[in-house]
TrEMBL record:
Top-level taxonomic group: Bacteria
Biological source species: Thermosulfurimonas dismutans
An MF annotation (GO) of this entry: pentosyltransferase activity
Chief location of this protein within or outside the cell: membrane
The organism's taxonomic lineage, starting at the top: Bacteria, Pseudomonadati, Thermodesulfobacteriota, Thermodesulfobacteria, Thermodesulfobacteriales
Domain Glycosyltransferase RgtA/B/C/D-like: start-end pairs: 57-215
Record-given protein name: Glycosyltransferase family 39 protein
Amino acid sequence: MEKDKGALELLFSMEGIFLLAILAFRLGFIRELHLQLSPDEAYYWDWSRHLAWGYYSKPPMVAWLIALSTRFLGISEYAVRVPAVLCGMAFLVLFYLFVYRLFGKLPARWALFAAALIPIFTVFGLLMTIDPPLLLFWAGALYAGWKAAEENRWFYWGLLGVFCGLGLLTKQTMLAFGFFYGLWLLVFRKELLRGFGPWLALGLAFLIWAPNLYWIATHHWVTLHHTEHHFKEEGLSLFGPVRFLGEQAGVLSPLLLILFIWVSWQILRRKDWRSEPRLTYLWVLSAWPYLAVLPLSLFRKVNANWPMPFFVAGLALTAGVIFSLRGRGAKWLRLLYVAGVGMALVGTALLYQLPRFPQKFPPSLAGLLFRFYGWKELARVVDSHRRPGEALVTDHRYLASELAFYLPDHPQVYQIPVSPPRTQYHLWGIPRNLCGKPVLWVMKDAHRPPDPRAVPVLRESIPLPGKRKRDFSLWRGFFIMKLCSLSG
């Protein structure tokens, strides 16, 4: 282990220059590309206009960060995504310092190169969802958690609690960090649990999270009910784990994933490796969570980003072991790691080119971008048919959020209320003063609005990449009293 790297030392180093180049490139990329917001990004932007301690499906951090950025930079795609770039860069810095602390310069350098080039980490260094700040706070908790266990100082226990609390204000997945960190203490560092430090961290984390918990409790636990559906069975699929690992190989790097599995297996079978605290720390916070997620893939599809935070420790573990080994075979393992970074670089390079030249890619790949296209065109059509004083009401949150962002006056767009609520728009409801007022209904496909007197205005399709299309219809009518009562 080496002493911590100072900020100035990092800045004036090869790694610092690399990080500054990545920062400049990512900021320039999102500035010049003008890629339309995905529905989730637009949804979170709409949240940022109604700041609160919680929202229907997620804690408030993503909305707070977007609100801060758009207050200073104005409302634009660039302003919405700047926090993702900054969070992504802060994640890389903390991750590098963490690996440097555990293993030294060479492993930290190659861990940094991999983290900056792995496709899924790149995506969440460009698009503003809940994952960029989660990666930042997760890396901070990893660093603080190790320092706290290593030095057993109140400062680091407190810092661990702060990072975990901020992570809990970002995504409920942060609970998994606390669970597996606690397991590591219980199995490998039980003596620390007899001290005050871990309980200070736990108390601080829940103190920071408490306002969001209060919001959830006073809104009928909607966030927890929404989270439950992620764990509902969809039927047994024996190929689920194969599909899960295949997707992980695609979004990470096949060789890096294979090396991670190999290192994890070596720790399992070699007692001398399990006696090394650095290895067990990273092993418990990476391999164990992956083993917990794997059975879930038998019963439902596991989204590629769900286990993404666990690979932060996994990548640190892989680089730390591979570049610390000596003796026969070490050279070949390093070559495999470098080749894995090369594969990640190729994947990320293609990722950067895909939104710039979708027509040059196969339709199956170009079709992955369909969520980022067609919203400006939809807004232009809707704007051309709006009348003064008409409210806009839709039947889908995607339409509501994208229209709110891309219409010139950024109006509040409403979603047809249902009970129980299924989106944040349902929680906000419909203002009473709109009941009985004129409405321009914007419906997905050819769906008919709930107003029986609604008159069709048009039905149209917008072409999207990958030979896809977005169908919608416009209707003119009134907001009926029955829906007013549903809105509460």
